[in-house]
C-alpha cells in the first residue's frame, strides 16, 4: 500500500498534494477523517459475518479517500467539519465504494487497490449485492441529514447510472466522441464529487454562493481527475505511477487520449488495436507505444489544463484562507501528477 493509499491519521499529513496545506487545516482534516473512517468501518454491523467481510473488503484496502477529503477541506470555508459534514463525507465515500464493486463486475476486473476484487475473490453476484449493501448504508446515513440531502443523493445516483449506461452504449450516431466522453465523466465521476462539495457547504453553514461554488468546483475537478487518470494509464510507466499501464486498453474503454489519437493520427494499426479489449500483453505494449507517440496525449493534456483553469475560476467566490489555498493545491496536483 502506497502513502497515497493510506488513510490520513492525525499528524500524518494528507495525500493528493495536500501535505503542503496550512498545518492547522491538515491536523483538523486528519482528525475528522479518522471519524469518517470509524463510520466506514461501521458498515460491518450485520448479523452475517460473511456480509461484513465483503462490505469491508474495499474499505480496508484503503485508497486516497478523495471524496471525504474534499468534503472535509471544503467545509473549512465556513464552520468546518460539523457532525453532519462528517456523516456526509462518509456517505459519499460509501457511494463511491459501492460503484467500484459494480464497476469490477462490468469490467471483469481481478484486482482493485492491490487486492483481489470481490468478484474475483467470491463471484459477480456477491460483488453486486455487496455494492447494493453499501448503497443502502449510504442512503441510511443521508436520510439522517434531511430531505434535501436525500433528494440530492437520489439525483446523484441517477446521474451516476446514466453516465455508466452512456459509457457502455457509446456515442450515438453523429455525436462527437470527445463531447460524449466529457459529458459521461461529468456524470460518472464529477457528479458525486460535486455532491460532496455541495454537502460540505450545506452542513458547514456556508453561504448559498459558496455552496454553489464548491458544487461547481467539485464537478470540474472530478472530471479533471478522471482525465488525469486516463493520461497516467497511458503515459506513465508502472514504476512511476504505481499502477499497471494499459488497464483501459485491456478493458476496451476508449479514453480521451485514445479518442483524440484515433481522430487526429489516422493510424490504421492503432485503429485495429483499439477496436476492442486487448488481452495480449505484446499488443498492449504496442498500443501504448503508438499512443505515447500520438497527438492524443498532447490534446488530452491540453483539455486537462483547461479543466484546471476552470476549476481555479470556480473558487473565486470562496473566502481567502486555508481552505481555498488547499483547494488550489489540489487543482495544481491534478496537473502535476501526470508529469
Would you kindly provide a written description of the structure presented here, covering whatever features stand out?
The chain has 16 helices and 2 strands. The protein is mainly α and 339 residues long. It has one domain (3-336): Farnesyl Diphosphate Synthase. The chain has a two-stranded antiparallel sheet with strand order 1-2. Helix 7 packs antiparallel against helix 8 (177-203). It is globular, with a radius of gyration of 20 Å.
Number of helices: 16
CATH class: Mainly Alpha
- The class by helix and strand makeup works out as mainly alpha
Rg estimate, integer Å:
20 Å
Shape: globular
For the record, the CATH architecture stands as: Orthogonal Bundle
What order do the strands of the largest sheet run in, or round the barrel if closed? Answer: 1-2
Low-confidence stretches: 1-12
Strands, total number:
2
Cofactor: Mg(2+)
GO biological process, one term: isoprenoid biosynthetic process
Pfam families: polyprenyl_synt
Protein name: Geranylgeranyl pyrophosphate synthase
Summed up, what is this model?
With 339 residues, this protein is an all-alpha fold. Helix content is 70%, strand content 1%. The longest helix is centred in the middle third of the chain and has 28 residues, at 208-235.
List keywords for this structure.
339 residues; mainly alpha; Farnesyl Diphosphate Synthase; two-stranded antiparallel ribbon; 16 helices; 2 strands; globular; disordered N terminus
Amino acid at each position: 500500500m502506497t502513502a497515497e493509499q493510506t488513510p490520513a491519521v492525525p499528524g500524518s499529513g494528507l495525500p493528493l498534494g495536500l501535505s503542503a496545506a496550512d498545518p492547522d487545516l491538515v491536523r483538523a482534516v486528519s482528525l475528522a477523517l479518522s471519524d469518517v473512517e470509524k463510520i466506514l468501518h461501521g458498515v460491518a454491523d450485520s448479523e452475517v459475518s460473511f456480509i461484513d467481510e465483503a462490505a469491508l473488503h474495499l474499505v480496508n484496502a484503503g485508497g486516497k479517500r478523495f471524496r471525504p477529503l474534499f468534503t472535509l477541506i471544503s467545509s473549512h470555508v465556513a464552520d468546518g467539519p460539523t457532525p453532519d459534514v462528517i456523516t456526509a463525507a462518509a456517505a459519499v465515500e460509501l457511494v463511491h465504494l459501492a460503484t467500484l464493486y459494480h464497476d469490477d463486475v462490468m469490467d471483469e476486473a481481478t484486482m482493485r487497490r492491490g487486492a483481489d476484487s470481490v468478484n474475483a475473490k467470491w463471484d459477480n453476484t456477491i460483488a453486486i449485492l455487496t455494492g447494493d449493501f453499501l448503497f443502502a448504508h449510504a442512503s441510511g446515513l443521508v436520510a439522517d441529514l434531511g430531505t434535501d440531502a436525500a433528494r440530492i443523493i437520489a439525483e446523484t445516483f441517477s446521474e451516476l447510472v446514466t453516465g455508466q449506461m452512456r459509457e457502455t452504449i457509446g456515442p450515438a450516431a453523429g455525436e462527437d466522441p470527445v463531447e460524449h466522453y466529457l459529458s459521461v465523466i461529468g456524470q460518472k465521476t464529477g457528479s458525486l464529487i460535486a455532491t460532496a462539495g455541495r454537502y460540505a457547504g450545506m452542513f458547514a453553514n456556508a453561504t448559498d454562493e459558496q455552496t454553489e461554488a464548491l458544487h461547481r468546483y467539485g464537478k470540474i475537478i472530478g472530471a479533471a481527475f478522471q482525465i488525469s487518470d486516463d493520461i497516467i494509464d497511458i503515459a506513465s510507466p508502472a514504476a512511476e505511477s504505481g499502477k499497471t499501464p494499459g488497464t483501459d486498453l485491456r478493458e476496451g474503454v476508449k479514453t480521451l487520449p485514445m479518442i483524440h489519437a484515433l481522430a487526429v493520427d489516422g493510424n490504421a494499426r492503432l485503429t485495429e488495436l483499439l477496436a476492442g479489449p486487448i488481452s495480449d500483453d505484446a499488443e498492449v505494449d504496442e498500443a501504448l507505444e503508438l499512443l505515447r507517440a500520438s497527438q492524443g496525449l498532447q490534446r488530452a493534456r491540453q483539455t486537462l489544463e483547461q479543466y484546471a483553469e476552470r476549476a481555479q475560476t470556480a473558487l473565486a467566490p470562496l473566502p481567502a484562507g486555508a481552505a481555498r489555498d488547499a483547494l488550489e493545491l489540489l487543482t495544481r496536483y491534478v496537473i502535476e501528477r501526470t508529469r
